[in-house]
From TrEMBL, chain A:
Residues 49-161 form the Ferric oxidoreductase domain. Part of the MsrPQ system that repairs oxidized periplasmic proteins containing methionine sulfoxide residues (Met-O), using respiratory chain electrons. Thus protects these proteins from oxidative-stress damage caused by reactive species of oxygen and chlorine generated by the host defense mechanisms. MsrPQ is essential for the maintenance of envelope integrity under bleach stress, rescuing a wide series of structurally unrelated periplasmic proteins from methionine oxidation. InterPro entries: Fe3_Rdtase_TM_dom, MsrQ-like. This is Protein-methionine-sulfoxide reductase heme-binding subunit MsrQ. The gene is msrQ. It comes from the Bacteria. Belongs to the MsrQ family. Binds 1 heme b (iron(II)-protoporphyrin IX) group per subunit. Binds 1 FMN per subunit. The keyword Cytoplasm does not apply. It is a multi-pass membrane protein. It holds the Pfam family Ferric_reduct. Heterodimer of a catalytic subunit (MsrP) and a heme-binding subunit (MsrQ).
Amino acid sequence: MASSIRWTPPGVIILTLWIAGLVPAFRSFWLGADNELGPDPVRSFEHLLGLWAFRFLLASLAITPLRLVTGYSLIRYRRTLGLLAFVYALMHVATYIALDLQFDFAILWRDLTRRPFLVFGMIAFLCLIPLAATSSQFLIRKLGRNWRRLHRIVYVALVAASAHFLMAFKTWHPEALLYVLSGSILLIIRVGYKIRSQVRQTGAKM
Amino acid sequence: MISRSFSEPRPSEITPKEYYLRRRMVLAVTGFLSAGAATGTVKAASLATRPGGFGKAETPTSLADITHYNNFYEFGLDKSDPARLSGSFHSRPWTLRIQGAVAKPVIIDIDQLIATHQPESRIYRMRCVEAWSMVIPWDGIPLADILRQAEPLGSAKFVAFTSVLRPDELPGQRSGYGSISWPYVEGLRLDEAMNPLTLLAVGLYGETLPSQNGAPLRLVVPWKYGFKGIKSITTMTLMETMPPTSWNQLAPQEYGFYANVNPDVDHPRWSQASERVIGSGGFFGERRQPTRLFNGYGDQVAHLYAGMDLKTFF
């Protein structure tokens, strides 16, 4: 990252995105370390990281629908948003294992083999790993068409993360429903445009 | 003979007094500042209590944590909602009705109830189904003492509890989306209700129960998950058949009628093997401890379930 900072306006925006994007994590970590995160600080921190992971995932997935609908492209910021989603997911999982379970791997194993709530969460996280790993300009060029195919995994991540989010509450939670609904709308816009362009293509061939 | 002895917590389990006092001071200051704004609501008044024989050795979770971290869906879904949104709830005047399979149905005024049965202070562990726990110094009256007033009939096998229904004062009851169908209802088998551990709490830390914790009276069944402890009770009905219970109606695979604390019966979505101890040392030191069968009250209650498969009747 640091080596590739370009002092052009987009470069500055990307740097700002990174700094601003990490503020919620640093702020909560600071409050947590100071014991100012309420009666159950670990849970509060864990949930905040998960929520921001989902927010950045939605933001990265909103770039293309935004272009399709308004013609306005923010594509150059999509990688930063996607990587922020990954970084938050990584911190979320690390907090779960280190601070919540306190490295009790017996419980971790039981959770990951028996509980759909945590299985969905882990699927979402595992999906984001290859996406983050292949996010460099070099690999985007090298993988070419395969890069686009690989990055369709993000939709699996979205579906798994949505299930995880909804199942985190004992009842239907309006906030979680709103986030999942937003993700679904983004997906529907994409699929809608895809179908329309295919219909046009077949129409042109006839 | 039911044992009144308790397994004592390890010294490390106990909230350091220094923290506990500091939290109380913070609470006192904030309470003073907000007192002016809280007109129209019932403020905590001190209760005349007598010491009970239960859990004397346990050092309680701070009052601030007990009153600012709890589930009370009538006020909202978040655990900070009850303290934040309970300002317009009126817990006086209040009457408790005991009806159904009883020889003498009664309607008792809450203040009369407190005056006739001098509340006893008891320190109980509280284990939430969400895998966290606290230690709470309740002031209350054994449920058995109250039920006996109504003289349950021989045919009575269960007690059904009904909570308050007041959408005007309880924002969570106004929301349109489907979750719990109000009012909240709970139930116990009669022998569970008559067990000496089962308490109707009217106070906390020697003062009347705050609205967010279930004023003016709530059920406390320390060997069961917290959701069995129905709050702001209006009616108790003695029944011959098992009554419906709110969480069981909502998700029968996740919440059983018995809901006894059991580390070997996991919730479908998370492990019940261990629990986070609220207020036990902050961010890096928050303690996770193994959960005990019947929340450690097996000596007092295990006989109630002799011969029952606890995995089937969870």
